[in-house]
Amino acid sequence: MNQLPQFSGSGTPLATVLPPFPHTQPSVDGSHHNLAVVLFALVVVMTLAITLWVGRRGQAAEDFYTGGRDFGPFQNGIALSGDYLSAASFLGVTGLIALYGYDGMLYSIGFLVAWLVVLMWVAELVRNTGRYTLADVLATRMRQRPVRAAAGTASVVVTLLYLIAQMVGAGSLVALLLGTTGAAAKTWTIVAVGGLMIIYVTVGGMRATTWIQIVKALMLMTGAVLLTAWVLVRFHFNLADLMQTAAHGSPAGDRYLEPGLLYGESTTSRLDFVSLGMALVLGTAGLPHILSRFYTVPTARAARRSVIWAIGMVGCFYLMTVVLGLGATALVGARAVKTANPAGNTAVPLLALNLGGGEGSTGGTLFFAVTSAIAFATILAVVAGLTLASSVSFAHDLYAQAFRSRNKLPVTERQEVVMARIAAVLIGGLAIVLSLYAQRLNVAFLVSLAFAVAASANLPTLVYNLFWRRFTTRGACWATYGGLVPALVLVFFSPVVSGARTAMFPGVDFHWFPLENPGLVSIPLGFLLGWIGTVSGEEKADPDKFAELEVRSLTGAGAV
């Protein structure tokens, strides 16, 4: 998550869970910020150079949407892990572990287990049956206009929510790392990140976005390996000593290593954790920017091998976040981490500062700046992938199919690509505006909401379409809207929006839904309404189309 909850799972103010602790907050001098600015500029120049170089190659729809389908499994696996490992993973999950110990580690487990769902249910089958988007998979056996309207709308909503979360996190994070927390700095950071992501997508398309993801993933893994190795060396590779020191570094003491510090003190908090877990584990298989990655490889076998490579990298990374989170608590202290940033987002930079020699040292300055630059590169790469996914869904599904009048000529590939570029500008601009107004919102809520909506709206239609012979167009629409709308409504009437001190509108209280994440209700509801919509309608599924889809999904015969 990009921002951590400031209340415990029971609703108790965090100050009562984490009492005062003698660690002091590390300060950051101007040399750190100056070096960070230089490294940020190098990251921007490098990514822009990649975009301009790659953007000259190929202007057809297949090049813009899928990068020509000529990436290998290893390359695509690295890019997949790059798409998935956002600043929420590098900074947010580590911060969760630093502040909440055992309960924070559960986030790492949820994010990792999600890839098993992707491997078993999604990767190969989606690659065989689709072309560019999730709606392509549905359209192989459904009426195109309604399913493309539903799937395209859900995809745009999911990516926009995820995009806003990343950009709000970028505003807070980069402004803090550059030495200022003023509103103007956050605003200009959001505008700058938004402008860069528009350039990446409109100029380079999927090919440039993929190479940026590869570079970013390698930078992220290298930085994480170095920091993890340094922490282990400090504790002589004795994990027991690391855990005991971390427990002493946390005001919670031994409770830091036990369940229940964040979740588990009430029935509501336990249900909230189950809801969040369902969203994280099931939502990955419905994220549009993850699904679009399976079309960048030439075959379904390559798609499956890509996921295997991604699982390996993601698994190693989340194991390292455990060490980094424990190291931050042991060496910096939970109190200092929370003082520097209540959400814990600066745990990794502060750990890097400590490992490099502390405040004022050359090593500390270098480590702090490099870590900051890696976080910035992570944000740039993820927002580019999200913008591309949403613009492709808008152009390919909504503009070219769902909203196109039957009396007009079909849209050409060139027109689609032009509209996708225009959509990238419009969606990027909308994300910038919404992010500016959302700077005070809980970013963790936005990220988890994106996962919940993806699991509620996209996953039921995908699973039913691939495995249920009787599934119909009506059922697909009911499943999509039946998961999308309740998820949004339940969040609006949850404690995240009103009725709590950390809510969007803390001065009012109109909430009646007790959980912060709607997944526990909206995910089963999406599956249920998909079934009801199918069995209650007069429409009958075409057995021949399902047979064709089944053969194509399992064998790859006829795949693009």
UniProtKB/TrEMBL annotation:
It comes from Kitasatospora acidiphila. The keyword Transferase does not apply. Belongs to the sodium:solute symporter (SSF) (TC 2.A.21) family. The chain crosses the membrane at residues 35-55, 76-100, 106-126, 147-165, 185-203, 215-233, 273-295, 307-332, 366-396, 417-437, 443-466, 478-497, 517-535. One of its GO terms (molecular function) is acetate transmembrane transporter activity. Its main location: membrane. Pfam families: SSF. Keywords: Cell membrane, Membrane, Symport, Transmembrane, Transmembrane helix, Transport. GO terms for cellular component: plasma membrane. This is Cation acetate symporter. GO terms for biological process: plasma membrane acetate transport. Gene3D superfamilies: Sodium/glucose cotransporter. It is found in: Cell membrane. It is a multi-pass membrane protein. The lineage of its organism: Bacteria, Bacillati, Actinomycetota, Actinomycetes, Kitasatosporales.
